[in-house]
């Protein structure tokens, strides 16, 4: 695998930003790891960080480069600050950035496939929310979306901590009334997805959460909502908290689960 640390200018955000990119490389003599790469353009997983992290965190807290080597899968890890992958009420247009500009730039910079069946998204916590939001908002672009301990119910974030945190949530999303039934509401996006089940291909969806995680109840509500709507969802839970030991294990499971052409 090759690791690229890429700094570039975003027209959408109006600023310079960064992403870390892992690119498949065919290797046979590297001690402790054998890398695989397709002869054509590489399939790509957009791997999203959580609220307190940045584009470096998956490399620092997991062995994602080693895990991905066996699959011939490129990994793109962008930096979105504390935006919740959203076109913020007061701030940057981060959903437009990750949904429109980022894939276009990544596919122009690197030898990545632009086919839906080769494009996937996953993330943890805030990034789990972002992954489901991208997959359900744009089912025509993503073959699969995976949430690890995702923030699946934005309305529950109001009054969750302290006044400063609630002000931050309001700067991102506006009021709880503005979230409910909007493109920032995963429950609403699921209903929209269900209404198109007969007319469009649905992305494969994966959700996991530890039973001791503070977001566990939110995840259960979302899982049950998907079940009521009869939307196929791979759901897994086991003992675990909101921490990197759990996510390091589960990202390996996500890579196994992805519908990669082998």
UniProtKB/TrEMBL annotation:
Pfam families: Esterase. It comes from the Bacteria. Transmembrane segments: none annotated. InterPro entries: AB_hydrolase_fold, Esterase-like, Mycobacterial_A85_antigen. One of its GO terms (molecular function) is acyltransferase activity, transferring groups other than amino-acyl groups. Signal peptide: none annotated. This is Esterase. It comes from Paenibacillus bovis.
């Amino acid at each position: 695998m090759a690791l690229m640390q890429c700094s570039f200018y975003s027209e959408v955000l109006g600023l310079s930003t960064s992403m870390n990119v892992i690119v498949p490389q065919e290797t046979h003599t590297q001690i402790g790891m054998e890398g695989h790469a397709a002869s054509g353009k590489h399939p790509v997983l957009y791997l999203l960080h959580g609220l307190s992290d940045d584009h470096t965190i998956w490399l620092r807290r997991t062995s994602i480069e080693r895990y991905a080597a066996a699959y011939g899968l490129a990994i793109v890890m962008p930096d979105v600050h504390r935006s919740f992958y959203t076109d913020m009420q007061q701030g940057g247009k981060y959903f437009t950035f990750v949904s429109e500009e980022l894939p276009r730039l990544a596919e122009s910079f690197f030898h990545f496939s632009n086919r839906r069946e080769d494009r996937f998204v996953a993330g943890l916590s805030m990034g789990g929310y972002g992954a489901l939001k991208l997959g359900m908002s744009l089912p025509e672009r993503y073959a699969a979306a995976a949430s690890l301990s995702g923030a699946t119910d934005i309305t529950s974030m109001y009054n969750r901590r302290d006044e400063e945190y609630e002000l931050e949530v309001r700067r991102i999303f506006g009021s709880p009334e503005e979230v409910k039934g909007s493109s920032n509401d995963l429950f609403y996006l699921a209903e929209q997805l269900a209404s198109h089940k007969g007319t469009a291909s649905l992305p494969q969806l994966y959700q996991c959460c530890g039973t001791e995680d503070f977001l566990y109840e939110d995840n259960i509500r979302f899982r049950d909502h998907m079940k009521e709507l009869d939307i196929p969802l791979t759901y897994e839970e086991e003992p675990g908290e909101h921490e990197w030991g759990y996510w390091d294990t589960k990202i390996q499971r996500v890579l196994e689960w992805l519908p990669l052409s082998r």
